[in-house]
Amino acid sequence: FTRQCADNPVSNPCLFEYVYFARPDSFIDKISVYSARVNMGTKLGEKIAREWEDLDIDVVIPIPETSCDIALEIARILGKPYRQGFVKNRYVGRTFIMPGQQLRRKSVRRKLNANRAEFRDKNVLLVDDSIVRGTTSEQIIEMAREAGAKKVYLASAAPEIRFPNVYGIDMPSATELIAHGREVDEIRQIIGADGLIFQDLNDLIEAVRAENPDIQQFECSVFNGVYVTKDVDQGYLDFLDTLRNDDAKAVQRQNEVENLEMHNEG
User: What phi and psi values does residue 109 have, to the nearest 5 degrees?
Assistant: First the structure.
């Protein structure tokens, strides 16, 4: 049984899935996630070489582990050493969807541990797949400095995430996205980096589409605010904000605890 749910449907794969969620050995819409991420590293490495040509980078270090393949390609483009400067605890989940800023901050420290030998007296280029709230970035930059780094630069394989996702990702409310309403230098100051650079959206699209030119367009709403279903207005986004912000989730958790206690008492 099949049912046509829309007239003239067009495939719009989620671009963020290739950056962040998918396993590197996955194929989505005939696109190798691994190859797409290598392409992301090529594009971002070329941008860094153009815009930061005089930057004194000693080593390229990924923030594990989605960004590892991306960082390796950036290091190749820049002609700099690639090192694994962070050891990851695989039993801590994704921090940006965790409830509460305090828990997210603690979880970053539990999730990663710096290898001091790779940071001491070096100017390091950290590579991450994306920056959502900025919590992870701020904590990791602080950890790099504590490990002895002289300067800490950060490169994001994704463009600035300025808008919430409405198609299935439990993304923070717009006001909790660090790039929402801010320019790059403002973000840099908040997270404490000596330099910050983001992938261009067109370059990200090209990096992924190169693996399957038959894909004509992608769902890019978290980057550009364009929702492909054309039925998302500001009123709906404001409503989502009331459900997704930390205060709302704290109330929800408290209600769940109270309901559980009532059930146990009964």
Answer: -65, -35
- The b/e string for 181-213 (b: 16+ C-beta within 10 A; e otherwise) is ebeeeebbeebbbbbbbbbebebbbebbbebee
Q: 149-186: per-residue pLDDT in tens?
A: 999 999 999 999 999 999 987 787 888 999 999 999 99
* Chain centre distance of CA 247: 23
pLDDT at 6: 75
The CATH number for 15-230, chosen from 3.40.50.880, 3.40.50.620, 3.40.50.720, 3.40.50.2020, is: 3.40.50.2020
Please spell the DSSP secondary structure of 93-127, one letter per residue: --STTSSSHHHHHHHHHHHEEE-GGGTTT-EEEEE
d(CA 149, CA 185): 21
pLDDT tens for 64-84 read: 989 999 999 999 999 999 999
What is the per-residue pLDDT for 265?
62
Structural contact between residues 200 and 191, judged by C-beta atoms closer than 8 angstroms: no
Q: What is the pLDDT of residues 12-54, one digit of tens each?
A: 999 999 999 999 999 999 999 999 999 999 999 999 999 999 9
In this structure, are residues 62 and 221 in contact, taking their beta carbons and an 8 Å threshold?
Answer: no
